[in-house]
Amino acid sequence: MHVPKPLPREALSRDADVAARNLLGCHLEVRDSATVRTVRIVETEAYLGEMDLACHASKGRTARTESMYGAPGTSYVYLVYGMHHMFNVVTSREGDPQAVLIRAVDPLDFEARTQGPGLWTAAMGIDVSDDRQDLLGGRFRLLQAPAPASILVGPRIGVDYAGAWADAPLRFGEAGSPFLSKPFPVLPDDVT
DNA sequence: CTTGTGATCAAA
DNA sequence: TTGATCACAAGG
What we know:
The chain has helices at residues 16-23, 117-123, and strands at residues 27-31, 36-47, 75-80, 84-91, 98-107, 140-143, 151-154, 171-174.
């Protein structure tokens, strides 16, 4: 039986757009009192820090965004629209508030609807108590696994308020995955 | 298209 | 203290 290796922290010590690609295909183990469940990351979005108007940290360092200023490999979990928990992996270096939103996962050892950033966290019982945790040990463990053969790129979802940043190609997904939260735009190149 | 739902932050 | 806003999902 093949035992996956822990993801090295260096994979996250870089700009969020690079880390977002690195995270595709990686496994995330989530420990509960009695169980460990594993998912494979199939869709991510990068938030690039204070100058990125779609990033919460563009409003500066506040109680809410504090965890994004932490070390790479820290979690940033928050509640949006009063009901959905968003799970992010902090990247770059301490003091530079970049993060990768995990938008969709493939559940490897259990059954659940996980195709969306609020659905998979609900299925795994993730909430704000999981904010500011180390993701390389403890309740969460990120593991190395092969990257997808083909990666789709598109603009981020739900950030229309962010001006020019709304169109930046910072959403990444595994081509062909049935777990993607929404379709990716068809690129002109695909029309041959 | 609307609605539910609550944290957050700037304004007052 | 209020009110607008929001990195969503489900239902017309």
